Amino acid sequence: MSDYAQNLLVQVKAKNPSEPEFHQAVEEVLQSLELVLARHPEYRSAKILERMVEPERTMIFRVPWMDDQGEVHINRGYRIQMNSAIGPYKGGLRFHPSVTLGILKFLAFEQVFKNSLTSLPMGGGKGGSDFDPKGKSDNEVMRFCQSFMSELFRHIGPNIDVPAGDIGVGGREIGYLFGQYKRLTKDFSGVLTGKGINWGGSLVRPEATGYGVVYFAAEMLKSKGQTLDGKTVAVSGFGNVAWGAVQKATQLGAKVVTLSGPDGFVYDKDGISGEKIEYMLEMRSSARDSVKDFADKFKVDFQAGKHPWSVKVDVALPCATQNELNEDDARELVKNGCVCVTEGANMPTTLAGVKVFEHAGILYSPGKASNAGGVATSGLEMSQNSMRLPWPAEEVDARLHQIMKAIHATCLENAEKYGTPGNYVNGANIAGFLKVADAMMDQGLV
Ligand code: NDP
Ligand code: 2IT
Predict the structure, then answer these.
(1) Does the chain have fewer CB atoms within 10 Å around its N or its C terminus?
(2) Ligand 1 test: best mutation among 167, 285, 293, most atoms within 8 Å of CB?
(3) Could you tell me the CA-to-CA distances from 258 to 235, 291, 332, 346 in Å, in that order?
(4) Ligand 1 and 427: CB distance under 6 A
(5) Burial status of residue 16 (CB atoms within 10 A of its CB: 0-12, 13-18, 19 or more)
């Protein structure tokens, strides 16, 4: 890295201690953007990067709630409004005990580039809480969501900031959050996405992230004259993104042989299809947090405490969480002949893992490009809300497919233009950056 990028990273680390995931996300982006800054000194003198690593606004608040036994609990709520240069802040809410300010800042930072890549007018944000939905009753989740929204509602709005789901936040939580927002503001609007179909939601939004990941993987393989048909695929996670990815990969003729959870991974040599995909929804809503349930029900292999990256596959789709695929895992995948890694989760591969894929010369795409289908379809939900006109599933899916193809093409074009052909990381970071940076230049010192 140049002295300039190195110094900026040192400053980011010093100013934001104890936020390793945020440092990691910034480091990856800085490595790519050196190529741009060398050609465009104007971004450097306007201190665009120094501005982009500082959130426009951060809210941290108390979330008190009462459990079914009458005991009071206090969680911490957050919303990071990272960048609004190209549109209202947009990004999900994560409810998971591992949530910290640093994790949400890494996610908000990634979201800025991702949303820019979608070509839709959305800035970047992220929020959530260290609340653990595991084992909680519907009523407890509702009381928590109502308390969370009782503070958040002051900071969001359909033209200000539009949250959605992420880990631990699905249709049920969005419903409770929306109900409380409406009660506090009297305003029925598109303030959240991932809403129910009867009250402003978009068809295909639940499937969109996973479908988009697989559309992107198909484009990557196509660039090498290959298809997904007949390929063996490893998927990690068993949540919303994994569910959509398994469906679409199976539809396109691939055989998905793994799923994973915090307890380990399952290996299903016959492939996960039909009722097994339906069962993923049951596992997620059971709040038991166990993928072993799948192995027990369908009598397939279960390996406790392990990730699925040791299995011999052609394609890997990490869809669980950050840093779930390290350097050793990457080596194992390459050694076993994996030709394509398409990220569904946000930053699932460590920086050292990414280097292994790059040196091996296999196809590798970062989450901010390949998982953008979720937020893109959220953008389509916002369009439908503004028009007050719902689109049929075929129309939403066709637009999603077209957006993923366009992101793929943009990544390759920019990678080539800046001297690193085939490097999706550089292509995504550069293309995502340029649009936001130019908007910031246009809007003056903000
Ligand atoms: P879900 O809550 O539906 O599922 C998350 C999966 O990851 C579960 O299997 C979950 O198990 C596991 N997981 C979460 N945190 C951890 C952890 N710290 N350690 C081990 N396992 C963990 O979430 P999504 O499917 O929505 O999200 C998965 C990934 O995709 C995340 O990285 C998210 O940011 C990203 N993403 C999501 C989008 C969306 O629209 N939903 C869009 C784009 C990206 P557990 O029960 O422990 O939570
Ligand atoms: O990481 C992500 O892109 C999401 N969780 C989806 C965000 C959204 O606003 O739909």
Answers:
(1) C
(2) 167
(3) 5, 10, 16, 19
(4) no
(5) middle
Nearest ligand atom owner, CA of 206: 1
- What digits encode the pLDDT tens for the residues 271-298? 999 999 999 999 988 878 899 999 999 9
Under the banding of pLDDT at 50, 70 and 90, the label for residue 266 is very high
Q: Amino acid identity, residue 180? A: Q
Q: How far apart are CA 265 and CA 247, in angstroms?
A: 18
Q: What is the pLDDT of residue 289?
A: 84
Q: Give the pLDDT confidence score for residue 419 in this predicted structure.
A: 96
What are the structural domains, with CATH classification, of the chain?
57-187 (3.40.50.10860), 208-365 (3.40.50.720)
Q: Is 93 left (phi over 0), alpha (psi -120 to 50) or beta?
A: beta
80, 105 Cβ separation under 8 angstroms: yes
Task: Tell me the whole-structure pTM to 2 decimals.
Answer: 0.97
User: How many whole angstroms from 163 Cα to the centroid of ligand 2?
Assistant: 8
Mean of pLDDT values over 183-192: 98
Q: Which ligand has its closest atom nearest to the C-alpha of 241?
A: 1
Region 366-372 average pLDDT: 98
| 3-state SS assignment for residue 110 | helix
In this predicted structure, what is the pLDDT of residue 286? 85
Q: Whose CA is nearest to atom 41 of ligand 1?
A: 166
Residue of the CA atom closest to atom 31 of ligand 1: 345
Ligand 2 site, residue 115, Cβ cutoff 6 A: no
**Atom 27, ligand 1: which residue's CA is nearest?**
167
Which secondary-structure segment (H or E) carries 409?
A: helix 393-417
